[in-house]
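User: Last request for today: this protein with flavin-adenine dinucleotide, please.
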Amino acid sequence: MGDPRGFIKIKRKEAGNRPVEERIGDFGEVEQTLNYEDRKLQASRCMDCGIPFCHWACPVHSKIPEWQDALYKGNIREASLILHSTNDFPEFTGRVCPAPCEKGCVLGINDDPVTIRENEAATVERAFIDGLIIPKIPKYRSVKKVAVIGSGPAGLSVAARLNQYGHYVTVFEKDESIGGLLRFGIPDFKLNKKVIDRRLKILEQEGIAFKTNSHIGKNISAKQILDEFDAVCITIGAGKPRDLNIPGRELKGIHFAMDFLSQQNKIIAGYSIPENNRISAKNKNVLVIGGGDTGSDCVGTSNRQQALSVTQIEILPKPPASRPPETPWPYWPNILKTSSSHEEGCTRLWSLSTKRFIGENGMVKKAEVVSVEWLKDENGKYIMKEIPDSTQIIDADLVLLSLGFVHCVHEDLVNELNIETDARGNIKTSNFQTSNPKVFAAGDSVSGASLVVRAIFSGRQAADSIDEFLKK
Ligand SMILES: Cc1cc2nc3c(=O)[nH]c(=O)nc-3n(C[C@H](O)[C@H](O)[C@H](O)COP(=O)(O)OP(=O)(O)OC[C@H]3O[C@@H](n4cnc5c(N)ncnc54)[C@H](O)[C@@H]3O)c2cc1C
Ligand code: SF4
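Assistant: Here's the final one, the structure of the complex with flavin-adenine dinucleotide:
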């Protein structure tokens, strides 16, 4: 431990975000970076607590105290090696992870936790600058070929690991570019896409083949893939959005959040979108239905597109401002999250259920909502009850449905392979193997919609399972 008293001497310091008035004029990353000396001091706050709950709370079980120590001592090579030993892409998680590690940090019991996520991003960026992250070409090659279907963080981590084990890996992606939701879901203001390109270049040099515009089960049959490869891993994400089937749903101007967000990412990447397909928030009253992170991304994107007003509504009650007793330290707390997008301007309302959309000439103009309360029944289960005479009308000429995802898309691939799904519609696996022994699955397609860091962990574990299968 570099400085056992660091946490007493040094206060938590975050790099902070660019000023609101500057950042809403562009799609550049919102978060700034702290200078290297400050970052080392922040790492010194990791206090040798003995039992690092951060390590337990991190889904990839990052060896956080070890790389804080290396960072504090300025040994970036070692810090980067330790980081990469449990996480293939710390440059992604360092930017977009909600950092459950920080909620589990022992310092967080009575003080501000260590800036673990920002330290992660800073370490990996410094390692790139210092030329420490370079292609690792596998020394030995097996004769086995693996197809990975879907190129999000789960697919990329499966591919990276299996390639290092010496197998020949081809990643098939239905979209025009590699990256899954990293590329076409998460807005550029949270994750600059050059960060993905930089990693892809390394993965390609290491020997992984990437094939875009390859929709397996549609323009390439799943049977062909099964015949050509020794094992297949499905990492297609949880792409089926939850709909809101209420009167007026057929009106124009009501879209799924992902259609709106992916279009903006594509425009920034230089793709041309035909004018009649364009979903624009410019000069519109935008209503985002769903109070989660995807909804927050819609808020940030709408403000950058110069919406007239942005309102985000949520059916659940407003969470408390501080850690509630049901989720004590070191658990992830259900508390009110105010994202950088919320800070940029948005009316947030809770405990509202949407009853119908009201239109004019086929276009949505308003939404009727009613206040609800959540009461516990005799079994302790929460039941939603509408509050009488609480109807409100919200102006809305663009509605973005951000109600989460139900499960992976079954059409095409899953149906063609006839693999089993579980009660929730996710792909059913045992140790990542599906009901077809040659076919494995990982990431959101198995867990349901989750997080980048969980997708990476799942991909790493699936790769180990596939490697065992190929060695038999
Ligand atoms: C708007 C939004 C913002 C988010 N922000 C965050 C965040 O800030 N932090 C965080 O941790 N998580 C975030 N998430 C969640 C995170 O992005 C996902 O949990 C993660 O990307 C899942 O990874 P995956 O590899 O399982 O699937 P995905 O990233 O969904 O990738 C699946 C890929 O498979 C491809 N595919 C599907 N079917 C086929 C087929 N038949 N043939 C070929 N290819 C196919 C898809 O085109 C896609 O590229 C966000 C999600 C959304 C929607
Ligand atoms: S991956 Fe997420 S949880 Fe793990 S150390 Fe990084 S920021 Fe923390």
